[in-house]
From TrEMBL:
Primary location: membrane
Domain Cyclic nucleotide-binding intervals: 451-555
SUPFAM superfamilies: cAMP-binding domain-like (SSF51206), Voltage-gated potassium channels (SSF81324)
PANTHER family for this protein: CYCLIC NUCLEOTIDE-GATED CATION CHANNEL SUBUNIT A, CYCLIC NUCLEOTIDE-GATED ION CHANNEL SUBUNIT B, ISOFORM A
Top-level taxonomy: Eukaryota, Metazoa, Ecdysozoa, Arthropoda, Hexapoda
Gene3D superfamilies, per database record: 1.10.287.70, Helix hairpin bin (1.10.287.630), Jelly Rolls (2.60.120.10)
Subcellular localization(s) per the UniProt record: Membrane
Ranges annotated as spanning the membrane: none
Protein name: Cyclic nucleotide-gated cation channel beta-1
InterPro entries named in the record: CNG_cation_channel (IPR050866), cNMP-bd_CS (IPR018488), cNMP-bd_dom (IPR000595), cNMP-bd_dom_sf (IPR018490), Ion_trans_dom (IPR005821), RmlC-like_jellyroll (IPR014710)
N-terminal signal peptide: none
Annotated source species: Aphis craccivora (Cowpea aphid)
Membrane topology: Multi-pass membrane protein
C-alpha cells in the first residue's frame, strides 16, 4: 500500500480522520527513526491515492506562489488595498487539505461565475494598483487637462443646443450617444485615475504618498463636484415613460465639472511664454458662451410662441442657429435695430438680455482691456520716457545729431532687453533667487576674468550681483586716456577697439565677446589707476561694468581673496613691464583668436 511521506504529514487534522496520525500502523510501516510512514486504513484504490498525492503537491506549489505574492503585497501597499479583500493577509494563508480538494474538484473553466468574478477583481486590482504620480506643472498633465477641457466644452455647448434646437433626431441619436459616452469615459479616468495621483504641496513639501494624495483629493470640493457630474442620470431615459428627447436634459449635471476648465487655463497660463493670449482667450470664451445660451433661449421662446407668428420671433428661414446667434449678439451688445417685442414674455427676454449686455459684457470687456494694458505696460512706459527725454533735449537746443543718437540708444536698448532697467525687475525677487538668475546669466562671463580665476566661489556669487549692463552705440568711447580707472569692463556682445595716435585713427587691439579690460585699475597698485589708451565701441556693444566701490564692498569679507587679487595684479603688472621691455609690436596685440586680451592690453590700459 502506498504511504504518505513525512513532509506531507502536517496536513493531518482531527477533522480528516483518513489523514489522522492516530491511525494504527500496519506491518508495512518502518520502525526507523529517520523515516516514518503512516498508511491509510480506509481501503482506497492506488489510482485515487496517486491523484490525491498529486493534488496535494500541486496545492503546495500554489501555496508557495501565494506566499511570494503576499510578501510582495506587504512590501508594496496598493492605493486602495484596505478595501480589497483579495489582498488581505488572511486570504493568503495556506488552505487546508480538505479545502484544497474541494477547489480542485471542478476546473476553473467549468465555473463561469467564479471565473468572471475573479477577472473583475483582477481588473479592479490593476486599476487601483497604478502607482504613478503626476506633477501638476508637467507637460503631460497640461495635455491631459486640455483633453478633459475639450470634453467639458463639448458638454457645455452641445447640451443646451440639443435641448432647444432640433439637431438631435432618432436617426442620429446613436452618434450623439457615442460622443457623450466617449466624453464620459475620459471624465471617468480623470476623476478616478488621474486626479487622485496629482502631487500637492503641504508645509512647503511635495506630497508623493498615494494614500495621502487620494485622501487630499477626496476632501476637496472638486472631487465631490466631479463625482456628481458623472452620475448617470441619462440612464433614466431607458425606463418606461421617458423619451430620447430628454437625454440632453438628463446630462445637465456634466456642466458642474467647471473646476477643470479653470484649472486648465491656470496651468496653461504658467506654461506659455505669452500668458496674456490665454487670458484674453478665456474671457472671450465666456462672452461667446453667454451669447450661445442667449441664442438657445431665443429659439426656445420662438418655438413656444410659434415660428414666424410675429416680427420678433424667429421666422424659420435659413440656418436657425446662425440666425439666432446673430440676434443674440446684437441684443447682448446693445447694437440696436432689433424688432420690438410684442408681448410680456418677449419684453422679459429682451430686458434680461440687455441687463446681461450692460453688466456682464461690460465686466468682460473691461477685463480684456486690463489684460491688454498689462501686456503693453512696459512698452508704454518706455515710449513715455523716450518722448519725455527727446522733448527735454529739444528744449535745451541739443544738436540733432546727439538727439538722434539718444533716440537710437532707446530703440536698441528696448529691442535687446525689452526693459530700460533690468535691475528694477530683479529687485522684486528674493535675494537667493536673484543670485541664481545672475549666476545663470553672468557667471560664465565672470569666470573668464583671470584676476578672479582662483577666488572663492562665494565671492564670485557676490560679484555677479554687482555687474551692471551698459549699452554703447557705434563710436561711443568707453574710457579715455588719462582718466582715473574706477571700473572694470567685460564685453558681453559686440566689439570694442583700443585706439591710439593723434586722432585715434590707429587701432591697437580689437576686443570681442568675453574680453576683459581695466581690471588692474580696480586695485590701484603702483599708481596704475590711470587709463593709458582710448577704448571705443566699434558697433553696438553690450558691456558689463564692475565698479571699484562694488568690488571693495564684496571682498571686505574675504581677506584671502584680497591677497589673491593683489598677488595676481602684481604678476600681471610684471608681465606687462616685460612686454614693454621686449617692445612687442602692436600687430601682435590685434591677433588674438581666443579673445584672451587681458594680458595683451595691460600695457595700454
Amino acid at each position: 500500500m502506498d504511504r504518505i511521506p513525512p513532509q506531507y504529514d502536517y496536513y493531518n487534522t482531527t477533522d480528516e480522520p483518513w489523514l489522522s496520525d492516530n491511525m494504527p500502523i500496519t506491518n508495512e510501516s518502518s520502525s526507523g527513526s529517520d523515516e516514518l510512514y503512516s498508511t491509510f486504513t480506509t481501503p482506497v484504490s492506488p489510482i485515487e491515492q496517486s491523484t490525491s498525492l498529486n493534488a496535494i503537491k500541486l496545492m503546495d506549489k500554489l501555496n508557495e506562489q501565494c506566499s511570494k505574492e503576499r510578501n510582495k503585497c506587504e512590501n508594496y501597499v496598493l492605493p486602495s488595498s484596505s478595501s480589497m479583500s483579495f489582498t488581505d493577509a488572511d486570504s493568503l494563508h495556506p488552505l487546508s487539505a480538505h479545502s484544497r480538494f474541494q477547489l480542485s474538484d471542478m476546473p476553473l473553466e467549468l465555473q463561469p461565475e467564479k471565473s468572471l468574478k475573479k477577472r473583475s477583481w483582477f481588473f479592479l486590482a490593476w486599476v487601483t494598483s497604478l502607482d504613478f504620480i503626476i506633477e501638476p506643472q508637467s507637460f503631460c498633465y497640461v495635455a491631459w487637462l486640455s483633453l478633459v477641457t475639450m470634453c467639458y466644452l463639448y458638454n457645455c455647448w452641445v447640451i443646451p443646443l440639443r435641448i432647444t434646437f432640433p439637431y438631435q433626431t432618432p436617426e442620429n441619436l446613436w452618434k450623439w450617444m457615442l460622443l457623450d459616452y466617449c466624453t464620459d469615459a475620459i471624465n471617468l479616468l480623470d476623476t478616478f485615475v488621474i486626479k487622485p495621483r496629482i502631487m500637492y504641496l503641504k508645509d512647503g513639501f511635495w506630497v508623493r504618498d498615494l494614500k495621502l494624495i487620494e485622501v487630499n483629493y477626496l476632501e476637496k470640493l472638486q472631487s465631490k463636484l466631479d463625482i456628481i457630474s458623472l452620475l448617470p442620470a441619462d440612464l433614466i431615459c431607458l425606463t418606461p415613460g421617458f423619451t430620447s428627447e430628454m437625454l440632453p436634459l438628463m446630462r445637465l449635471n456634466r456642466i458642474i465639472k467647471i473646476q477643470t476648465f479653470w484649472e486648465f487655463f491656470d496651468h496653461f497660463d504658467s506654461v506659455l511664454s505669452s500668458p496674456y493670449v490665454v487670458r484674453v482667450t478665456r474671457t472671450l470664451t465666456y462672452m461667446v458662451y453667454l451669447v450661445h445660451l442667449n441664442a438657445c433661449a431665443y429659439y426656445y421662446v420662438s418655438v413656444k410662441e410659434g415660428l414666424a407668428t410675429n416680427n420678433w420671433v424667429f421666422n424659420g428661414q435659413g440656418n436657425a442657429y446662425i440666425r439666432c446667434f446673430f440676434f443674440a449678439t446684437k441684443t447682448a451688445t446693445s447694437i440696436g435695430k432689433n424688432p420690438h417685442p410684442e408681448n410680456e414674455a418677449e419684453y422679459l427676454f429682451m430686458t434680461a438680455s440687455w441687463l446681461m449686455g450692460v453688466f456682464v459684457f461690460a465686466i468682460l470687456i473691461g477685463q480684456i482691456r486690463d489684460i491688454i494694458a498689462t501686456a503693453t505696460r512696459s512698452q508704454t512706459e518706455y515710449r513715455k520716457l523716450q518722448d519725455e527725454t527727446l522733448e527735454y533735449l529739444r528744449k535745451l537746443n541739443i544738436p540733432p545729431r546727439i538727439r538722434q543718437r539718444v533716440e537710437q540708444w532707446f530703440s536698441f536698448t528696448w529691442e535687446q532687453q525689452r526693459t530700460l532697467d533690468e535691475n528694477r525687475i530683479l529687485d522684486s525677487l528674493p535675494h537667493k533667487m536673484k543670485t541664481d538668475v545672475a549666476i545663470n546669466v553672468h557667471m560664465k562671463t565672470l569666470n573668464k576674468v583671470q584676476l578672479f580665476k582662483d577666488c572663492d566661489k562665494a565671492l564670485l556669487r557676490e560679484l555677479v550681483l554687482k555687474l551692471r549692463p551698459i549699452l554703447y552705440l557705434p563710436g561711443d568711447y568707453i574710457c579715455r586716456k588719462g582718466e582715473v580707472g574706477k571700473e572694470m569692463y567685460i564685453v558681453k556682445t559686440g566689439q570694442v577697439q583700443v585706439v591710439g595716435g593723434e586722432h585715434d585713427d590707429e587701432v591697437l587691439a580689437t576686443l570681442t565677446e568675453g574680453s576683459v579690460f581695466g581690471e588692474i585699475s580696480l586695485l590701484s597698485l603702483c599708481g596704475t589707476n590711470r587709463r593709458t589708451a582710448d577704448v571705443r565701441s566699434h558697433g553696438f556693444s553690450n558691456i558689463f561694468v564692475l565698479s571699484k566701490e562694488d568690488l571693495n564692498e564684496a571682498i571686505k569679507f574675504y581677506p584671502n581673496a584680497q591677497e589673491i587679487l593683489k598677488r595676481k595684479a602684481r604678476e600681471l603688472i610684471q608681465q606687462n613691464a616685460a612686454r614693454e621691455h621686449r617692445q612687442i609690436p602692436n600687430e601682435l596685440l590685434q591677433d588674438d583668436p581666443y579673445g584672451n586680451s587681458t594680458e595683451n592690453l595691460m600695457r595700454v590700459l
